[in-house]
Design a protein that fits this description.
The protein is an all-alpha fold and about 300 residues long. It is about 80% helix and about 0% strand. The protein is globular, with a radius of gyration of 20 Å.
Length: about 300
């Protein structure tokens, strides 16, 4: 997910629908990735990169952002930052798909619930931001949730933390790159598409890959990974321009909630009392965080 600072526009209802649709697609995406369960996660990422670039480039042209795309490509500092973010986002994608296809949807869900709280910690560490008391309480509760899983459940939630921190650091670095979300993601996929395309070709020539060897349905699903990447991004951008940051903050929890519900229902992953306590602590932390965000936004808007 690639989130710009929202700017208010007309028709906030339409904006909320766009944003909700984007996060709903992200939340239900484990169904799609699980359909590719027979394909190695690394090969899925290779195809996601290649087909995402193929899908995103026409959107840049149709969205009249071609000039911005070329200008960004000419700036060495911007390109250096996008090399770093491309590696971060591809790592996040790989870990997420691996988690989904290895029965860890609940851990992935927990990771994206934790992500806003990780952003607070990263802001303190790297941007010298000062915490409000509610934020301190929220981060403390989240830490207790992680410790609860580690010591009572006996499993360190490395998948959740790796997803949360990789996406959090991605967002932190991405903020410093002077480029829009669509153009930025297109360049990120371009930087990765060349080696990814070569690797896909190698897999095909050695017949060690799945593409064009496992049936038309699998081929179409791999090609469709580009559409699955571009569609929610486009909807997100349409929504972010029309609603407030506070509204967007609430709607973003649609994605991990969708993953959570899929994990305990469709995928029937075990959900223990220890996990329930951890999720309860995280949800309480997010409620405090969201309340503080709304309060801060209203105070700034009232000035």
């Amino acid at each position: 997910m690639d989130a710009p600072e929202p700017k208010m526009d007309s028709n906030p209802i339409a904006g909320a629908i766009y944003a909700f649709s984007a996060f709903l697609i992200w939340g239900l995406s484990p169904i799609y990735w699980r359909a590719l369960n027979g394909v190695d996660a690394f090969e899925i990422i290779l195809h996601r990169i290649v087909w995402s670039f193929v899908t995103l480039l026409p959107l840049v042209v149709l969205g009249r952002q071609w000039a911005a795309f070329l200008n960004a490509c000419k700036r060495p500092k911007t390109m250096a930052l996008l090399v770093a973010t491309s590696l971060l986002v591809s790592t996040n994608w790989l870990l997420y798909i691996w988690a989904v296809n290895n029965g860890r949807v609940l851990q992935a869900s927990l990771g994206y619930y934790i992500n806003p709280l990780v952003n607070i910690v990263l802001g303190v560490l790297f941007l010298r931001e000062r915490l409000h008391r509610p934020q301190i309480i929220a981060v403390t509760l989240a830490a207790f949730g992680v410790l609860n899983l580690t010591f009572r459940y006996g499993v360190f939630p490395w998948v959740s933390l790796a997803l949360a921190f990789s996406f959090g650091i991605y967002g932190l670095v991405r903020k410093t790159a002077d480029v829009g979300p669509l153009v930025g993601l297109t360049i990120e996929t371009l930087l990765l598409a060349i080696p990814a395309g070569i690797w896909v070709l190698r897999l095909f020539r050695t017949q060690s890959g799945t593409f064009l060897h496992a049936g038309i349905s699998t081929d179409l699903l791999l090609i469709g990974t580009g559409i699955l990447t571009a569609t929610p991004l486009l909807l997100f951008n349409l929504g972010a321009k029309r609603i407030t940051l506070a509204s967007l903050g609430f709607i973003q929890y649609t994605a991990p909630t969708g993953m959570f519900l899929l994990g305990i229902t469709l995928f029937k992953e075990p959900f223990t009392a220890t996990q329930a306590l951890t999720f309860g602590l995280i949800w309480t932390a997010l409620a405090i965080y969201s309340w503080d965000a709304v309060k801060t936004y209203r105070e700034k808007a009232g000035r």
